[in-house]
Specification:
Blueprint: H1 3-15, H2 19-32, H3 37-49, H4 53-69, H5 73-89, H6 93-110, H7 116-119, H8 122-130, H9 134-150, H10 154-170, H11 174-189, H12 195-211, H13 215-230, H14 239-252, H15 256-270, H16 278-292, H17 296-308, H18 316-323, H19 327-340, H20 344-360, H21 364-381, H22 384-400, H23 404-421, H24 424-440, H25 444-461, H26 464-476, H27 487-497, H28 502-509, H29 513-527, H30 532-541
Organism: Litchfieldella rifensis
Domain HTH luxR-type: 478-543
InterPro entries: Sig_transdc_resp-reg_C-effctor (IPR016032), TPR-like_helical_dom_sf (IPR011990), Tscrpt_reg_LuxR_C (IPR000792), WH-like_DNA-bd_sf (IPR036388)
């Protein structure tokens, strides 16, 4: 094929999103002739979408200089922007910022009124968003979008729409912001955007939905992202993130083996792209799946990998320590991370684990404070997932306070939400709590049925750690249990774990304080532990709470 034919084939391959063919054909044409600026931009884009970052940056640089020499300042600024933006996204902030500054300077020096003037606003808007200046970010994104509309550039309009939605969500205007995310996605679904802009929109929208725990939107747009990636077999930059998002959804719905497969594929793809922020999270997801399946050695190894990629290991590592019986290590870690967490997203991520661990160590007051905060956030975000977590926590705390009848209301409410969300693991856990509440009320038949249903579900999931805990809970209510405590002593132990004094326990159970003193002595002797705190730790580890 001659040069003209190769060039024509390269353009056609680019049009049908066959990036490997486009790169090979346009590169071949470049050896026989000087490519036009539009073709150079196509070649730079194809290189980026194939994961050839160095080649892409070189091509953007060449196109920038060629346009500058030809006096095409707007094109030169556009190439400098995409080069800089790509570097920023890969973590090279100094180099990326320098190229964005060059693009901005070229536009300002020439006094150009062009769409590129809107593009160079985007990094400033993102910086404002990251600093918590939601009003400033919204205003800058809006100005950029106005330029996009005036010059008929759907890519800039969609990116602006995404940024405005993120700004509104950051300011607490959740529904308005989510509507703008959907509007940005309409442009992607309609095929109006370049592949560079479409990838930015997909990842930005899905990650924002996850931040506000809007699982319905996150799942819908992840499915759309999967289709988009599958339509471009050569695509590299967004495929790893797509796998991570798919793994998250599979984990929620109980397809843990499939989730592990997707997460490991994501680790393999992302680890070859330095600066990719999702790599550490992909390893963290693997670690969480190993932890839930009771594969503790593998979980440790995956957490170590996540740490090497700069990902924060909490709350997963604290929950692993709790499962290993290292209660003090779990408590110290989770208290530290909660005290350090200042932003709402981080606190929301760690509060459920904090509540579980505080209940495990018998600090019911701290658990209740955490649950109340989680409830406030859930109400503000109007997110069913968070609401189910909050109501599950409230029910667990009422159980720890020996208020089983009061606990059943929030627990059954949580059960309905988990069923609606098809969240199998969380559904099994709340069924265990419902069984415990029924047992405390003397309804052993219902308790056994709830335990059996939870056991079947956990067995299907492969949740061996939770299965062991459930077996311990079930045996705790049967004669001949391993700890040798009477039902009354178990009841006293639970109140000890709830932080009650002997006097308070005596009042609650309508007996003398001397009787409770005797029960406490018997409990410590039977469990062979030296203190109330040690008895609480034993009760947690053996499923007595």
């Amino acid at each position: 094929m001659n040069t003209a034919g190769t060039l024509h084939a390269g353009r056609a391959s680019f049009q049908r999103k066959a990036w490997a063919d486009a790169y090979a054909e346009l590169s071949g044409a470049a050896r026989g002739t000087s490519l036009a600026p539009d073709d150079l931009e196509r070649l730079a884009t194809a290189a980026y979408l194939l994961g050839k970052d160095v080649e892409s940056y070189d091509l953007w640089t060449r196109t920038h200089h060629d346009a500058l020499a030809a006096g095409d300042i707007a094109r030169s600024a556009r190439c400098a922007f995409w080069l800089g933006f790509g570097l920023l996204m890969s973590g090279e902030k100094a180099r990326g910022g320098a190229w964005i500054s060059r693009a901005r300077r070229l536009i300002e020096e020439e006094g150009l009124d062009c769409v590129e003037a809107g593009y160079v606003m985007i990094p400033d808007a993102l910086r404002s968003l990251g600093e918590g200046d939601h009003a400033g970010a919204h205003a800058t994104f809006h100005r950029a979008g106005e330029l996009g509309r005036r010059f008929g550039d759907p890519n800039l309009v969609a990116i602006s729409c995404l940024g405005q939605g993120q700004s509104l969500i950051g300011a607490g205007r959740i529904h308005e912001g989510a509507a703008l995310l959907d509007e940005a996605m309409v442009a992607v679904e309609a095929g109006e955007l370049s592949p560079l802009a479409a990838g930015i929109i997909y990842c930005g929208v899905i990650e924002t939905c996850q931040q506000i725990f809007d699982l319905r939107r996150a799942q819908e747009w992840t499915t759309a992202l999967t289709r988009w990636c599958e339509s471009q077999p050569d695509l590299v930059p967004y495929r790893g993130r797509c796998l991570v998002h798919r793994a998250e959804i599979m984990l929620l719905h109980g397809a843990w083996l499939d989730a592990m497969h997707e997460a490991k594929k994501a680790c393999h793809q992302l680890r070859h792209r330095p600066g990719e922020a999702a790599t550490g999270y992909a390893f963290y997801l693997c670690a969480e799946l190993h932890r839930l399946r009771g594969e503790r050695v593998e979980a440790e190894q995956a957490y170590e990998q996540a740490s090497r990629w700069g990902y924060t290991l909490q709350p997963g590592l604290a929950l692993l320590r709790l499962a290993q019986g290292q209660v003090e290590a779990a408590e110290v870690a989770i208290r530290r991370i909660v005290n350090e967490a200042s932003d709402q997203k981080t606190r929301t991520d760690v509060l459920p684990a904090y509540i579980d661990i505080m209940l495990a160590v018998g600090d019911v007051a701290a658990a209740r404070a955490g649950a109340d905060e989680l409830s406030r956030i859930a109400e503000m975000l109007d997110a069913p997932f968070l609401q189910a977590l909050a109501t599950s926590a409230q029910g667990a705390i009422l159980l720890a306070e020996c208020e089983p009848l009061a606990a059943l209301g929030p627990l059954r409410q949580a059960c309905k939400t988990w069923e609606a969300l098809d969240a199998q693991y969380e559904l099994a856990r709340v069924r265990i709590l419902i069984g415990l509440a029924c047992r405390q009320l003397g309804d052993e038949d219902t308790a056994r049925m709830e335990f059996d249903t939870a056991h079947w579900c956990l067995q299907q999931l492969g949740a061996s750690s939770e299965l062991s805990r459930l077996d311990a809970l079930a045996s705790a209510g049967t004669p001949g249990n391993r700890h040798g405590l009477t039902p009354r002593e178990v009841q006293v132990l639970r109140l000890i774990a709830a932080g009650k004094t002997n006097k308070a326990i005596a009042i609650k159970l309508f007996v003398s304080e001397r009787t409770i003193d005797r029960h406490v002595s018997n409990i410590l002797a039977k469990l062979n532990v030296p203190s109330r705190a040690a008895a609480t730790a034993y009760a947690c580890h053996h499923g007595l709470l």
